[in-house]
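1st attempt posting a full record on here, be nice pls
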Amino acid sequence: MSWITSEEALAILKVQPQTLYANVSRGRIRTRPNPDDTRRSLYSGDDVQALARRNAGRRSVAAVATHTISFGEPVLSSGISTIADGRLWYRGEDAVALAGHASLETVAALLWQAERVAFEAPPTAHGTPAPATPLEAALLALSRRASHDFPTGGRSPAMLCREAAGLVSTLATAILGGTGTGVLPLHERAAQAWKAPAAEDLIRRVLVLLADHELNASTFAARTAVSTGAPLAAGLLAGLATLAGPLHGGAALGMQSLADTARRIGARRAVHDWLSRGHRLPAFGHPLYPEGDARARALLARFELPAVFAELREAVAGLSDEEPNVDFALAALADHCGLPASAPFALFATARSVGWIAHMLEQTRRGGLIRPRAQYDGPALRTAAIG
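the predicted structure (as tokens):
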């Protein structure tokens, strides 16, 4: 791999520095520290050339397919959610507007096309070792269900919805913690588990805004799993495992790490050091929201930004035109409300499980196995001699 300077990259791309930094933060261009000057970075020449070719419009059929996989053109039809005009829509309803009054339960009913959805807390299991983390607890709970639940094929929508409600509650109980019983809205259960009653309304808004987000990586994994006829629990397990990656549901943890560093050495130095090590800047920008993440704006308008997050936002603004995204808002909200470090991911997983279920139900109803093809770029094929 070749490495080039920022001046060379700018000359190839024919863009302003802010656009170069934006492509770095979006993961389109890899960087590494310049060994001759650690205050500066080098940029992947391969990534820069690839981006320049794409911007120039020289796109083969294979290149179009490759671009489609990463925030490109739609690859399958869905009536659940979409991002249009810079806003997120759930079955034609503005998600930000819904966050003003709805609960995750009412959004589940909307997305699942069910009359009513309630999440009843499952009975507490006794005699098993306590998981080390909330994520481990959720993965274990879902794997137990996935190993013995019935496949999805040939079952009625009403029966699948009842099973889905129990699965979401199982996941939520495992990952949010607490020992609540009975039927209680999930935002109330989370606030009780974390002993943060003042955060209840903010938690409700988070859960609504994160319930679904088109065909993201974890949703695609869940939908692909259930397209094989696998149980809903297996689809949730696939979605949760995919969500755990640092480029998806784990992005807020990166933001928390950056904030911790900023508290020690200052925001500008923290951002500079983060970028100089070749790390992608977490929680800023989103390819589907070029004018800024509407979900983040809706949340950030509801509470006072903690000082360190305000300083980080200002520091990044001096380097890039990227706006904070929902992962930034999640990390800042958890800090503001005194929630545990695991709260951003726990809220993300709990909310998104509703969307995963919606997509799995839709896939089951429409049928068909999701099976993309690969563009082979391995060794030349060797034809055996015949004779």
